[in-house]
């Protein structure tokens, strides 16, 4: 098979998937938009929320998640169907999807690679490579995708490629051809100054000096009329050279410094990973225009190492020199350097004699700018504390590039100087292992990967770990892994002996100590939380502040790179920062217990609000008023409530554990009770069992009979939902006794419903029916529709087990009608499954299939994984009855097994064995 066989993706024109040279039909704009989003970020995870935002903007349909998941499945099938071994696949990588393919198979990335190669080649070869890159454009980029999918960087890329190719052709003397090519471009957009300048050069070198001057006047009039300013410095300089007929002079003589400085410090021997960041810096350097780049990131992430290593590689692109200064913005051993001192350093580097350096700051700025105006220089400003510290050092010309590193994002530079911002993250696992092995040599694969993970893939921590192994041969990787594995000693293990200021803790401390007091206190309060991620509402609750203020505070902390915004309004610290904050909070925060109570109360109020959106609940345990509505997230619909529970579930369980350890037993069982509804609707055996067992233990520890009663009923619900083989009625009987003792009639009815259902599992059908009909009658007297629907459904289940199918259908239809009237979809899918099974048993496969498919559609739309699995097994049993549909039955069994694998893996072998009977 040729190397060009298999999948190729074209984005520079109509979005197209190719199999070799053959276009493959993949569907409409939505599928093409999905492919484009994954291909633009090839090799990276594109979050599902980002995909939905890109495809639908701020108004996605309720089924957006399902649509995207279906389109992903469709694209996977298309890629799998390509001949031979697939060269591209779509991976599921939470929180989204990742396209795994060689970037050379995507035209955008091939164009970038050709641009990078051309930089290092002579003009002839560069022109050829850039012409090849331009040929990849087949029209407007991303044609055929939804209008909301945008990638303006593709237009920038085309301009960069075209501009570089024209520069190469100018050097080759192809002036007449360029005049023909560039003239219509400038007429169409006279504000495109780079293109106008290239055309001026071509005209001048072709002997048409008068036309070059007239072109400048045309551009100048257009710029003044449209923007109200003169053309930029480069074009004005070029005009002056043409006017004076001395264009062969490379730069203005007044701008020529005495010498070209070369101030770069030594670079690390090799740089692990960072290919994307290096490509980003290369792309900015290639524009040939004045650029300010800010590389920010948390302490120890390797910002300085990256930019210095890149600068050594890119220095040849800046023939007029490289200036470097460490601004000591976050250096524990030095105060931040003032701009006046830095300007002195730069002026001396540019050849100004010591005695000629002006005393006044504004005079130094003026001299500095006059010396480097018009030069092609690189200025590196390392470890800046603020935008104000940087601004006086920015070159004024249009040909220099400035790269700034900082622990803060310096967003002010983006506003005032159009700076390009890049946040540097931690290393990929394999690259992190390379850092350790560069210092300590190769070792056991699993141990080194464990070591890298415990270092949080943070370069500073990785270098310390590697240095410890290298300097102490008696220490093995296993010893260090064991030491780091204890969260309470991990930071101490990442200190540098004899150099406390160089450790991980010290690096974080400098960032923390520079915060305003209110932000520092909030960060310490977040350090108390066992939660790994936090949003504005949780932060507002623990910080006792309005939500808007908490949101601003979180974004400010993210701007300081002490938190990372991992999704919209979702923030998380690096794992080592989390340990640092927890350690610091234990010694410096006087209200740790209060913070935990506030977190528990927030989750109680939010969970109770969410469960009442998911099910029509009549429950005297009402915790929604623990916080005012403005302090809670907007949970107005089923989908919003379900999404909130899904996003917060790991946090909720962690807070429950912490509250139990803190002996907040009453709060624990109450939170377990109100959050239990989520697992009723979206069952997951292990987590549901853990939640209920913890709630029951807390209720018993607090001695509260009501809590014990409801937690026992919840445990029965688990046994019934999963039809656990060891289920027995003891929990239901005990719950009934407790409810009777309390005199709580509704709790008695609920306990009777669950007891009857448990008896049904033991084939004690008549006894079960008697209890369930008694419950039905009680709910008719009280008008409790929610419980009546449950009782009727359980009656139907029991009648079915007893072989009384007609009676079961009547009960189930009545239950389904109630569920639909209440909007209780999680109960409705159970009724639809039972009706499908009953219709099959009564000899009506058509009606059975109709009920099954209706249930599957509802389960898919709501994300009910367990219910969908059960329905697909039911559908498979319906389909297997006919030889003509046996193949479809196998497909349903396979889908059911995959779904069961997510919620109750113990059920999978039974499903697979049943499917094997078809063979």
UniProtKB/TrEMBL annotation:
Keyword Phosphoprotein: no
Pfam families in the record: BTAD, TPR_12, Trans_reg_C
SUPFAM superfamilies: C-terminal effector domain of the bipartite response regulators, P-loop containing nucleoside triphosphate hydrolases, TPR-like
PROSITE patterns: OMPR_PHOB
Domain OmpR/PhoB-type, chain residue ranges per copy: 1-101
Keyword entries, A-Z: DNA-binding, Transcription, Transcription regulation
Origin: domain of life: Bacteria
Ranges of the DNA-binding region feature: 1-101
Family annotation (PANTHER family): TRANSCRIPTIONAL REGULATOR REDD, TRANSCRIPTIONAL REGULATOR REDD-RELATED
Entry similarity comment: Belongs to the AfsR/DnrI/RedD regulatory family.
Protein's UniProt name: BTAD domain-containing putative transcriptional regulator
Protein's organism: Amycolatopsis rhabdoformis
Lineage: Bacteria, Bacillati, Actinomycetota, Actinomycetes, Pseudonocardiales
